[in-house]
Amino acid sequence: MIARDRNPYLPYPVRIEEIITETGDHSLKTFKLVFLDPADEARFAFLPGQFAEISVAGKGEIPIGIASSPTEKGYLLFTVQKMGVVTSHLHSMRPGDRLGLRGPLGNWYPWERMEGRNVVIIGGGCAFSTLRSSIVYMTDPSRRPKFKRLTAVYGARCLSLLLYSDRLDEWKGEKSGIDMHVTVDAMQESEPRTPRWQCHVGFVPAVVKEKIKDPTDAIVILCGPPAMLKFTLPVLKEAGFADGQIYLSLENRMKCGIGMCGRCNVGGKLVCKDGPVFSLAELGELPRET
Amino acid sequence: MRTRYYERDAFPPAVAELRRAYRVFVPVRRGDFHAFAEWDDSVRPDFDYRKTRVPPKGLVFPQSERLLVFSTDERDPEHDILREAPKDFPPQAVVGIRPYDAMAFRVLEVNFDTPEVRDPWWLRRREATTLIGLARADEDATMFRTENYAGPFDERGLDVIVYDLGRGYLAKALGEKGEAALAAMGGDEPAADALREVEERIARAATPELPAGRLRAQPAAPELPTGRLRAQPVVPLFEAEFWDEVAAPCLNCGVCTFLCPTCWCFDIQDEVRKQEGDRIRNWDSCMFPLYTLHASGHNPRGKKTQRVRNRFMHKLKYYLDKYDRGVMCVGCGRCVEACPVNIDIREVAARLNGFGEQVERHDR
């Protein structure tokens, strides 16, 4: 959260340290950002699930989920899809260029509830970023004992669109502390890289149906495109998960990110301030307008 | 509590005294309408005005405001680092503001001064502002009362209330800011009859049952029907069938939001001239489809009905539920007056408030 006495519109100056092109189609890049003033890093204390406004001077700001974990010190990661004015400009920038960063903003996944429980992580496409943050956070040796069984299902359209390939290799390893299921909608003939580990072929809901069967003492955190959510939620309900056990991260157009400019509301709730993470039970009480 | 009396002709010169210590904003005639303008030698205040077309909201929350500045010149060691635009917040007095427009600042403040974050421009400008209100029972036919507007003598949002007694004005300070302003304005101790007359006028305005004509100069504005709104569950209201009917004539012109003293939505844009850049905040409107359009092309409120519904639900239900301080409306009637297709918040409030009643009757 931004300190109450700080001007909440004023970004922290950051430098692009590294740019990683994540996907074969170059539509997704991960930006590794370092604070110009190292003291700002402590002011930016966050939890996985939160987001920040990345500020490109002269172009504007965009709200982006934080992809790195609080356990990864000295830098922040943001995975950005090339889409509009600001993101297109970001994709043309180089290491060394300056950006601004406002945040951390919004709420986070329900960490207090997740401790001591089984955690299921379900993600699809570019929405996997805050789930990457969560998995790195939970599998960190200092934090892993706090959680019981960790299971993840992560899907993309094809192998070349999977994010964080270095981490996937690690999570698929035997000592990773997480049962990781990766799936692609279809295997392309011309895949640039064949993974060493087993990859499912099929949509996320089908893999969830096969692998996620036990709702006992479990919390599910979910982030993905609308189609994935639409078909995954019924599978979870069929398996016996209650609405209060399922948490989703929402998106909406934002400007201020601090609950003032008004546009990101769903009913009386603001996605930027009351969210972006809501339980399915909370969403059930809101008007359906996303 | 300081009270002062001014003869009719003595009031403008007393207000002029404030110009020594404040930037003074007063109602002035602009063509067929009135507007608040800074009182310099080029304008003449008109305290007999009824309502400005655009509310004085912008004196605290400007229509356009430069928030941050930056340089994009890479030779500048501070390039691409945003910093606060340097500016002053000199004391300002808004003289002649009507009680509903003053109450609007109380409606707005919950958005800009919150337990978690505070908008620094709102805070500083609000702190620098003294509201000297004009109380006169001259509500027009588009006006109405809400929890946030109790009538023409509502002093809750004001620092000084000035009663127009016809032959003169009686001013009463309502706090520290008001005491300071009234001390600067000078004036005389009011006579007992002036004080008595104020009380009579207030009593008259508060008693709408009195026979019209002899005692009542003006009929009292009606209450906005909102009594059942809090108990109404939000989802059925949202899904009510009448929204298409309410929205059908709407042209999406946005005038209702532009003229509303309690609307706060804004946009933020960057502008660069040569290599000097500004980050600017502008009023925005939930009536425009671009307001919610995602970069992906998806729009959660792409249809007119969705936008009209959001505006009324925000004002009459979401705000009420979230802050527990009434509806987000001060009854000024500007949206009723200016809407080119006669969409009327009083009718919409009645529909929301009465929602479910017909069904219940039918069931019996």
Automatic annotation (TrEMBL), chain A:
InterPro entries: Cbr1-like_FAD-bd_dom, Cyt_c3_hydrogenase_gsu, Dihydroorotate_DH_ele_sf, Dihydroorotate_DH_Fe-S-bd, FAD-bd_FR_type, FNR_nucleotide-bd, OxRdtase_FAD/NAD-bd, PyrK_electron_transfer. Residues 9-111 form the FAD-binding FR-type domain. Binds 1 [2Fe-2S] cluster per subunit. Keywords: 2Fe-2S, Electron transport, FAD, Flavoprotein, Iron, Iron-sulfur, Metal-binding, Transport. It holds the Pfam family FAD_binding_6. [2Fe-2S] cluster binds at residues 256, 261, 264, 272. SUPFAM superfamilies: Ferredoxin reductase-like, C-terminal NADP-linked domain, Riboflavin synthase domain-like. GO terms for molecular function: 2 iron, 2 sulfur cluster binding; flavin adenine dinucleotide binding; metal ion binding; oxidoreductase activity. Its cofactor is [2Fe-2S] cluster. This is FAD/NAD(P)-binding protein.
